[in-house]
Amino acid sequence: MLVELEEDDEKYEDETLYTNARKPPSTGGTRSAKAI
Fold first, then answer.
1. Dist. CA 11–CA 28, nearest whole Å
2. Residue 30: its pLDDT value, please?
3. Vertex 20, ends 18 and 22: CA angle to 5°?
4. How far is CA 11 from each of CA 4, 5, 7, 33, rounded to the nearest angstrom?
5. Which pLDDT does position 25 carry in this prediction?
6. Among 1, 7, 25, 30, which residue is least crowded by beta carbons within 10 Å?
7. Distance between CA 36 and CA 16 in Å, rounded?
8. Contact in structure between 19 and 28 (CB atoms under 8 Å)
9. Could you write out the three-class secondary structure of the chain?
């Protein structure tokens, strides 16, 4: 379960960064801080 969650988190982080680049920083401000 932990490994699955970790893998999912990695994939989500990648997607968040990609979405952050396209969307304004206002939308991904909090997410950006979490991804870093």
1. 16
2. 56
3. 75
4. 11, 10, 6, 16
5. 56
6. 1
7. 11
8. yes
9. CHHHHHHHHHHHHHHHHHHHHHCCCCCCHHHHHHHC
Amino acid at 23: K
The model's pLDDT over 3-27, given as tens digits with 9 standing for 90+, comes to: 555 555 566 666 666 665 565 555 5
Instruction: Give the residue carrying structure tokens 């994939």.
Output: 11
Q: Is the pTM of this model over 0.85?
A: no
Give residues with Cβ within 8 angstroms of 16, minimum separation 6.
Answer: 28, 31, 32, 34, 35
Residue 33: per-residue pLDDT: 53
Retrieve residue 36's tokens. Answer: 């870093």
